[in-house]
Design brief:
Elements: H1 27-34, H2 40-43, H3 47-56, H4 65-71, H5 90-94, H6 101-104, H7 111-116, H8 125-136, H9 146-150, H10 160-166, H11 178-202, H12 244-255, H13 261-273, H14 277-291, H15 303-316, H16 322-339, H17 344-353, H18 362-374
Helix pairs in contact: 8-11, 11-12, 11-14, 11-16, 12-13, 12-15, 12-16, 13-14, 15-16, 15-18, 16-18, 17-18
Length: 376
């Protein structure tokens, strides 16, 4: 139906936010002026996007299905107000509104009745993180491959709470905790991490699909001998599987004092050491079986417990690569939204340490993380 269906001043198109009621009322204005999703289609007309399309042997990126799937609200049937150049609009996340819009505008409408008519329940953190991750991480339908990276597409690094804060949010965060948002996002990403690995390994679709390995198993200087400083692995000489979000689940299980913590660690260590497809398929199945029942809302995790778990992990695994370092830095930042005890200069330094792949140093980053987490 298009973003125009939501933009009336009496609905979500107000200039200023309301102080009362369940919604802010200026959601459209926030999206249009401050949210990068509103510019996602325009991005496809940039010189960089055209260069990526050229390397992929494609035509105009703003006309290619591969690009439009994540850079626009894709629909087979559209109303009069639908515009492709609106980019990632309301219905990309909230769902096609033809069925739920009439009920949504009724005086007696509730969130529950809207959901019953097809509105996507984004209040649910698991649902919300899954919707975001479908484009910002990939899923069974939208796969971000190494070929896309090789053509010049920016590397994906997503974390729910951080992205929401930067976006910025256009909703009231009632009873929301940043640490719970981080946990929910990591559980979703871990599940998708396994699903994508299963897709490429288990079905023998294309293997190796290099996007499923850590980038810096290969992208490092041999002459500078950077490989000599990485943590020991039983699979020396093999690219290391990108299990970034499976590693963060380790933090979560430890913080929750979960009975499956030791089993998860053992399976994950075995996955990293595995060298055959059959081994990996079996281990991924066991990890997914442990992961599926986990829900952020069911885990009793305090910011203090997560902070302690983060410190322990960093001390025990000081050689983590950049992809995991990014997630650990964003975890510290999310925790700080609640605890407010990390020095602003320390936080700024952490982001600087993971900004550049060429200058990334795991030892300095581990030291800076521990310093920040120990600050009062």
């Amino acid at each position: 139906m298009g973003v125009g269906s939501c933009a009336a001043s009496s609905c979500h198109g107000g200039i200023t936010a309301k102080s009362t009621g369940p919604i802010l009322g200026n959601e459209f204005v926030t999206w249009y002026k401050h949210d990068r999703h509103a510019k996602s289609y325009i991005t496809l007309q940039s010189p960089e996007s055209k260069r990526i399309a050229f390397h992929l042997g494609l035509g105009k990126p703003h006309e290619e299905k591969l690009c439009l799937e994540c850079h626009t609200t894709q629909a087979s049937n559209t109303g009069e107000r639908y515009r492709l150049d609106d980019g990632v609009g309301c219905e990309s996340c909230h769902g096609a509104s033809e069925k739920w819009l009439p009920a949504h505008t009724a005086q007696d409408a509730t969130h529950e009745s809207n959901v019953a008519h097809g509105l996507v329940d984004l209040k649910n953190l698991s649902t919300r993180s899954s919707v975001c991750a479908s484009c910002h991480f990939g899923d069974k339908d939208k796969v971000i491959t190494h070929r896309l990276y090789g053509a010049g597409h920016p590397r994906i690094s997503f974390e729910l709470d951080t992205y929401e804060a930067v976006m910025p949010r256009h909703w009231k965060n009632i009873s929301y905790r940043a640490s719970q948002g981080w946990v929910a996002g990591q559980l979703t990403l871990a599940s998708k991490n396994i699903e994508l690995l299963q897709r490429h390994i288990g079905t023998h679709e294309i293997f190796p699909e290099f996007s499923q390995f850590t980038c810096f198993s290969c992208h490092q200087s041999i002459t500078q001998k950077g490989y000599m400083t990485r943590p020991r692995s039983d699979a020396v000489g093999y690219p290391r599987i990108n299990a970034t979000h499976l590693e963060t689940v380790t933090l979560i299980l430890q913080a929750a004092n979960h009975p499956k913590y030791n089993q998860w660690q053992e399976l994950l260590a075995a996955l990293h050491a595995s060298t055959t497809q059959d081994e990996r398929v079996a281990l991924l199945g066991k990890l997914l079986a442990l992961l599926v029942p986990l829900r952020a809302s069911d885990l009793s995790i305090t910011p203090q417990a997560l902070r302690s778990s983060l410190r322990v992990y960093i001390k025990e695994h000081p050689g983590f690569d950049l992809q995991l370092a990014e997630q650990l830095v964003m975890a510290a930042a999310s925790l700080n939204q609640e605890t407010k005890d990390i020095n602003a200069a320390d936080l700024k330094k952490l982001y600087a340490l993971v900004k550049n792949a060429e200058s990334y140093n795991p030892g300095r980053t581990a030291e800076a993380l521990l310093k920040a987490l120990d600050s009062k």
